[in-house]
Structures are given as C-alpha cells and as structure tokens.
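Below is how a single chain appears once it has passed through the pipeline. First comes the sequence as given, then the structure the pipeline wrote out for it. We keep one example in the README because the format questions we get most often are answered faster by looking than by reading.
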Amino acid sequence: MDSPKTGLTGNQLKAIALCSMTLDHLICVIFPNYPTDLWILLCHALGRIAAPIFWFMVAEGYHHTHNLRKYLLRLFVFALVGHFAYNFAFGIPFVPFRTSVFNQTSVIWPLFIGVIALWVRDREGLKTWQKTVIVFVLAALAFPGDWSSPAVIVILAFGRNRGNFKKQMLSMLLWIGVYAAVYIIFINPVYGLLQMCVALAIPLLGSYNGQRGSFKGMKYFFYIYYPVHLVACGIIRILVHGNIGVMIGG
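Resulting structure:
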C-alpha cells in the first residue's frame, strides 16, 4: 500500500483560497475606497493568495476532467450566478459598463474563459496564428472581470507549462506585473503594487502534492460558498454604508 504523499492536497489549497478570499472581500466592504492603513493593506496582501490558487486549480481541473463539456457548463452557470452575487457584494450595477470597464463581473468569468483558452490551445485542427487570434479575443472578453485579461493568460500559462513549476510561476508574475501596472496608472498606485502579493501563493502552490483530497464534495461546497459569502458581504455593505459602491466599478 502506497503511503500518502506529503504536501497540500487540492482540497486544502481550495480551503486556503476560500479563507483568503473571504478576508479580502470582508475588508473591501467594511473599509472601502482603498485605505492605506498598514493592517488593512496586510489583509489585502493575504487576500491576493486566493486568485493564483483558483487559476492553478482550474488548469488542473481541465487536465483531469473526464467531461470537458460538463466542466465548462458548470463554470458558465457558476459565472452567471457569481456575477449577480459579486456585483451585489460590492455595489456594482448588474448591467455591465454603466459605471466603469473595470470589475464588472466576478473572477469566475475569467476562469471559464481560461478553460476555453486551454481547449483552443489543444485543438489540433487550428494553426498557431489562429490559436493566437482566438486567445487574444478570449482575453479581451475577460477584460471586464475581476483580475481581467491577465487571469486568462495565466491560466493558459499554467496549463501549457504543466510540470514546470518555475515557468508557471514566472509567467504568473510577468502577467500580473502587467495587471499591476494598469492598476497603478488607472486606479490606485498603492493597490496596484499590492497585486504583486500573488507571490505569497507560490510556496503554497509549490507544496501541491497532485492529489484531490479525501473530501469529494469540495467542489460543490465551493460552488455554494462563493455566492453565499458574497451575498453576506453585500448585506454587510448595505448595513454599514448604505447601498453604495465600495470599489472601482461601483
């Protein structure tokens, strides 16, 4: 009988991501408008751990899934539900682009687009230039989502460089560096630099042991927890501040 592998399972990584994400979102709705108190910045820095884990695990999910169509459908429905929950949480209009081009929908939309990009990459009937054009269009479609177009490119890089952890992480830092630069120029310099705290996720991802974990219902728990915690954040936002937007996009 094989002994269990050391390191973190996929379920454990997802649990860490949920905690990180929840902390970040709660701080956003309670202390809006980009405050620079050190402890708040620290909370947001810890909140940057979540997205890289989501990107990494969705690339792993694409590799392991036995039914890509069902996987994509599940992500699409999740993105649709997540849109309304996310926008309610932060006071962003449900109809996109009424207030901004940034943060118009949740991080689940780029996850869904990222899996399509991985599928396009693996299509043998497409030429390289065709794949490049399609991926460019897909990245553009993800632009209004949380973490925007770079999220799709990072997911694609995670899938393409699977088995080469160093390349995966360098690609992530490169593309999030681009995202951070845009954030610095157009939104907020301090919070733009803060996006580079995605690097905090690297040791955690490096300890991934390739196993899902014993709890088979984790993916369904995540699908339920994500919108529920956002609705709770939206209620807190309204109770504390009234029905106002608390981040760019609102």
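The mean pLDDT is 95.

See the next section for the split statistics.
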